[in-house]
Design brief:
Blueprint (H helix, E strand, L loop, with lengths): L8 E4 L11 H6 L2 E4 L4 E4 L1 H11 L10 H21 L1 H4 L5 H15 L12 H21 L13 H16 L1 H7 L5 H8 L8
Helix pairs in contact: 3-6, 3-7, 7-8, 7-9
């Protein structure tokens, strides 16, 4: 019988009632990890990416490229607007009570209003956000298909994981949001190409 292998890297997430790693703050923006062998704790996706790449260089993962920077910048501006409206207020529904309190306090302080104000009963605000972003979302998605199946071609880069992580977060929070964005070209292709790398090992 194979012995249990302790993980070398621990990823911290908000407490979720679905018992999954879901939060956009973990998947793409501001994660926190512990590197067990060196007892090192780190926050923020960029230094974490460089630390992991230097610690585990095989297989290599390109961390930056001109195309990747363009996609990340445009996706943050365009997809971020729609996700803020559709995903952020719904995250409350899958958080534990203690995580809900933290999430509400920090997000509402940043927004300057209640999370509930991002949505309305008839869905008009949400629809307006998606309509306003639609053409730009399509343009960003088409950039993702420049080489394929990954942004830079046959191997994944930091940008691919940025995209796939954002989509995974949306999927865990609200399946309809995930389905809506993956109707645009590029998003589903990158997400599906990254799936093998998102499986939990051990």
């Amino acid at each position: 019988m194979p012995s249990h292998i302790e993980p070398e890297v621990v990823l911290y997430d908000l407490a979720c009632t679905k018992n999954v790693c879901f939060s956009p703050t973990v998947w793409r923006i501001l994660p926190a990890i512990q590197h067990v062998p060196t007892n090192t704790y780190m926050m923020d996706s960029t230094p974490i990416a460089y630390f992991l790449e230097s610690t585990y260089p095989d297989p290599p993962v390109p961390l930056t490229s001109e195309l990747g920077r363009e996609i990340e910048s445009k996706a943050r501006a365009v997809v971020g607007m729609a996700f803020r409206t559709s995903v952020m207020p719904r995250e409350m529904d899958i958080l534990s009570p203690r995580a809900q309190e933290y999430f509400r306090r920090t997000r509402e302080a940043a927004l300057g209003h209640r999370l509930e104000d991002l949505l309305d009963a008839d869905g008009e605000k949400e629809e307006q956000a998606w309509v306003a972003s639609g053409d730009s979302m399509r343009a960003v998605g088409e950039l993702m298909l420049t080489h394929g199946p990954f942004v830079l071609g046959s191997r994944p880069s930091y940008t691919d994981f940025f995209i796939a992580g954002s989509l995974q977060a949306a999927k865990m929070v609200h399946e309809d949001v995930f389905r809506r964005i993956t109707k645009y070209p590029g998003y589903a292709e990158v997400y599906e190409a990254c799936l093998p790398y998102m499986e939990k090992k051990g």
